[in-house]
Amino acid sequence: MTERLKNKVAIITGGVAGIGLGIAECYIREGAKIVVTADRNLKGGAAAVARFGAEQCLFVQQDVATKADWAKVIKATVAKFGKLDILVNNAGVSGDGSPIEDMSLENWNWVMDINLTGNFLGIQAAINAMKETNQSNGSIINVSSVAGLVGLAMAPEYSASKGGTRMLTHAVALSLAQRGIPIRVNTVHPGWIDTNIIPDQARDAIIKTIPVGYLGEPIDIGEICVYLGSEESKYANGAEFTIDGGVRA
C-alpha cells in the first residue's frame, strides 16, 4: 500500500464485479474507504464487504437511474464515513445487440437510463454531497468506453450512451471550473477488458484486434482511477484517458 487515497471516501457504482470490482480492489489497496453499489448482484455486494472489511467497505443496493436511490447512497455514505471525495460512475449495460432498425424503444431507453441518465444523477448527487461535506472538493470519474470515442457497429445504443457520457463530462468539468468549484470531472475509456461480458466464442477474434495481443484486466482501469481520485491528478480536468492496449493508436 502506498496510501495514495488515504482518508479519501469513494462511491463506486457497479462496484462488486468486473471493472468496478477491479477499481474497488485498487482503492482499498491505496487506503480509501469505499461504498460499492449494485442493483441485482446482492451476493457480490456481501462478498465485497466480507473481503474488504466492514470498516473500509459498505455495500448499498442501488438502481443508478433512480434519483431516490442516489439520495439513499449519499445518505448511507455520509452516515458511515462522514464525507464524499470521489465518485466513480462505473455501472453500465451493453444493450441487446440488435440492429438499429430492429431495436426496441425499451432497449434503447434501458441503456440510456443506466449509462447516461445514471451518470447525470450521480454527478448531480456527488456535487451536492461534496459541497455539503467536503468544502466543494472532489473528483468525479465517469467510466465511458472506447465506444464513446468511435462507433461500435454492433451496439449503436451503447456507443450513443458512452459518447453522451463523454460530452456530459466535458460540459460539467467546464461549468464547475468556470464557477470556481474545485471538483474535477474526467472520463476513462476502457477497451476490451477481461470480464464476463466478453462471449467465450468471440474471445480469440477480439484479441486479434488488440495491438498488444491480450485483453486488459479490471485492475488496469482501477489503476487509472486511483490516479484520477488522488491529488496527483489535480490538474487533470475535463480530460479523456483511454486504456485499450493500443486499439486507438
TrEMBL record:
<dbReference type="InterPro" id="IPR020904">
    <property type="entry name" value="Sc_DH/Rdtase_CS"/>
</dbReference>
<dbReference type="Pfam" id="PF13561">
    <property type="entry name" value="adh_short_C2"/>
</dbReference>
<protein>
    <submittedName>
        <fullName>SDR family oxidoreductase</fullName>
    </submittedName>
</protein>
<dbReference type="InterPro" id="IPR057326">
    <property type="entry name" value="KR_dom"/>
</dbReference>
<keyword id="KW-0560">Oxidoreductase</keyword>
<dbReference type="InterPro" id="IPR002347">
    <property type="entry name" value="SDR_fam"/>
</dbReference>
<comment type="similarity">
    <text>Belongs to the short-chain dehydrogenases/reductases (SDR) family.</text>
</comment>
<dbReference type="InterPro" id="IPR036291">
    <property type="entry name" value="NAD(P)-bd_dom_sf"/>
</dbReference>
<feature type="domain" description="Ketoreductase">
    <location>
        <begin position="8"/>
        <end position="195"/>
    </location>
</feature>
